[in-house]
């Protein structure tokens, strides 16, 4: 995939081709989202595709396709449901993100209606519920039909399903003879969590967020399934009706409430853009405590006569707009700070949050990095966030972009509970009670328990079996946790993995007779372990999990010492700070004091050393290829990665390129030989093009290095 060309640089041919591609991609995303209730891309990525499509269409109106995504709503009804033709179309809403767009919305309406700047113009502002829309047709006060939006013209008949919702009255009194009530079906947070727990226990699929759960639950061919799902409903509008409900939007909603429909309590009347923005801020602050997902605030012209005059565009009303929340930010409560102990003993603080949906994913944890970060300082003691600290009970802003681990971006001091105390970072390990010490040069506090610390031991085992280490099929993080706690057949250190089969022979019950295991999976596991008794040197060094020894350093060490015997002898004979072995270690290009002393210390720590010796006794270690003799098409080349990589992380890509003898640079220059660009590659790909540097995509890269 190549980088996006700025719209003003597109040729007509390129624009036509890109519009075709976007129409296809958007239709695919729409089907996944609306038809299968299982989105394949994030909402932000989807919105970016739509925006790009709109920009190109604006510059090349002649190229607008008959199947243009901007002229469509949702997706056609799914197979299996009877179809319902809507008497009045069910539309989408125009989106806005910036305050300036709201001022423009107001100005546009005034121009359209010929209203002066000072003429009064009232709007309603109400939460935009993140569920799916439903149209309920009442005739003579009886519910006769319920339909989803579908493609706006034709929806799915879900009458029997809708009847199972207790929020939806089967009969209403005092309503016009014909009335289509429209609103949103949604699932509350608590119900969503309970449903996902039940689904997981029953081995059924779980849902990514409450919206998907609501849509997937309403759109069932078997109404009994819908009945078993805790769905709710808010009414916010209407379709066909035989007599008007009121003169105003608010008046009409009040009548729907009188008929017995739940309506959203946070609906307000606002007299212009400033009041709308104030209401937006107020609703955004409440977002996490509402108990259900909202993804913005909807503004509507209150006067229904004016709504009629304003009318509709192809897919949206002119009299309403959805002011969306930024896709990646949300406010919520920091309930607790917990400490996790990692492989190297690092105490990592984690924020436990009141769950909030950010970018389509329910977030309940965020990283807090270290104690300085919690206290509002960086590693040099300089204030960050204006020196504001995080405390349990605080109201915090969560940030999540792409697949990045959620972070806390800010804290609202005006909402700090009066009894909230500064967080006291523990000085002892919560897992094993050993002292947790912070060295001067380090921002991290570490448990000194080493292998006696269960948390460190488990994390080291997980690392040992991980993909770039021993990579033992059937022995993943979950199994490691289980075996670690097992009384009969425990794995407490790597050597235990290689005695597992022999010990199992002596045990009752046998592994194959245990919960979660069978004859086949047990046999396969033993075979997978057997296969790993022969292991390349660099993998073994990496697998030991010594601090600062990542894949790249493990490879470096392997290529220098070549055999386990040589490596082990050098580490054993070296002393930190001096001597021939120490000097030799430091003379390796890429090995510094920190790495060297970490290695030597590990080999001189008696418990560690004994554990390594016990392990190696079971292995046959393959020697490495000498350094500098890397035979690969990218050896000696300077490579730059840019954009999103889909098959590997950036760190992985870098490590693999380096292992193949390439140099990986962060920016494009004349010295660059090759640019690997994924989706979203920006200026770097353009620079490469300007400099005439070869640019390839991830797939081509994998082929080049023989890893596709
Ligand atoms: N991730 C994906 O692949 C993917 C694919 C398609 C759509 N989407 C998401 O869906 C959005 C587009 O869907 P859309 O066309 O339904 O637009 P929308 O959901 O952004 O807005 C229109 C809908 O808002 C709902 N709504 C909720 N509260 C309302 C209220 N108080 N008043 C009026 N309407 C209210 C109605 O159901 C209405 O149909 C995208 O922005 C994206 O976030 C994602
Ligand atoms: Zn510990």
Automatic annotation (TrEMBL):
Keywords: DNA damage, DNA repair, DNA replication, Ligase, Magnesium, Manganese, Metal-binding, NAD, Zinc. Gene3D superfamilies: 5' to 3' exonuclease, C-terminal subdomain, 6.20.10.30, BRCT domain, DNA ligase/mRNA capping enzyme, Helix hairpin bin, Nucleic acid-binding proteins. NAD(+) binds at residues 43-47, 92-93, 126, 149, 184, 300, 324. It comes from Rhodovulum strictum. It comes from the Bacteria. Its cofactor is Mg(2+); Mn(2+). This is DNA ligase. Zn(2+) binds at residues 429, 432, 453. Its EC number is 6.5.1.2. It catalyses: NAD(+) + (deoxyribonucleotide)n-3'-hydroxyl + 5'-phospho-(deoxyribonucleotide)m = (deoxyribonucleotide)n+m + AMP + beta-nicotinamide D-nucleotide. Residues 629-702 form the BRCT domain. The keyword Transcription regulation does not apply. The keyword Zinc applies. DNA ligase that catalyzes the formation of phosphodiester linkages between 5'-phosphoryl and 3'-hydroxyl groups in double-stranded DNA using NAD as a coenzyme and as the energy source for the reaction. It is essential for DNA replication and repair of damaged DNA. The gene is ligA. Belongs to the NAD-dependent DNA ligase family. LigA subfamily. GO terms for biological process: DNA repair; DNA replication. GO terms for molecular function: DNA ligase (NAD+) activity; metal ion binding.
